[in-house]
Design a protein that fits this description.
single chain, four-stranded mixed β-sheet
Length: 185
């Protein structure tokens, strides 16, 4: 029996050197560090217009798609107008069905946001002919309202793709470190 005891220390040493069975298995392919960017065509984005109960509400500005669902049931908010005055007003059903700003959702409403207009002709991605003041207003609202308050869920196809359908090599996702990327699927 003395000869049988000799392999035991060798077996223990081998077990100590091998990775533990309970350790996480090594993946051959690592998942991406960040969630993939979701691309929205116009018809896909239109489905998130606040008219279907239980569906998130999305709005695009400058080709960036935001989840504004949290603005649906807001009871009150304070807004600082560019002049520096603060106004307190009721935002009940801000973006939801029948709400005052529902016209902006389900599409890229960049021009309407820049002009602070709900005119259907202004509810488009097109910024052609906007004044410097309107472009500055657009940037201010984009950065200080939408990027600050609502998570980015994707981008419009116009932002990611060129007109011929090829990838836009200049595309860079927006930086929004205070939100985690929302993945509803």
């Amino acid at each position: 029996m003395a000869g049988a005891a000799a392999p035991l220390p060798g077996l223990l040493l081998l077990l100590l050197l091998l990775p533990a069975a309970s350790a996480e298995p090594q993946l051959r392919f690592r998942p991406p560090a960040e969630a993939p960017v979701r691309l929205f065509t116009e018809p896909e984005l239109a489905r998130y217009d606040g008219h279907q109960e239980g569906q998130p509400i999305y709005l695009a500005v400058k080709g960036v798609v935001f989840d504004v669902t949290s603005g649906k049931d807001r009871q009150a908010s304070t807004v600082q107008i560019i002049t520096g005055f603060y106004y307190f007003f009721n935002l009940t059903e801000f973006y939801g069905k029948g709400a005052p700003y529902n016209a902006l959702v389900g599409k890229d409403s960049t021009r309407g946001v820049a002009k602070m207009s709900l005119d259907p002709a202004d509810l488009t991605h097109d910024t052609t002919g906007l004044t410097e003041e309107e472009l500055k207003s657009l940037d201010d609202i984009f950065n200080n309202v939408y990027k600050a308050k609502y998570p980015i869920v994707g981008y419009t196809s116009r932002r990611i793709l060129n007109e011929d359908g090829s990838p836009n090599l200049d595309f860079k996702p927006e930086d929004q470190p205070h939100f985690s990327i929302k993945d509803e699927f």
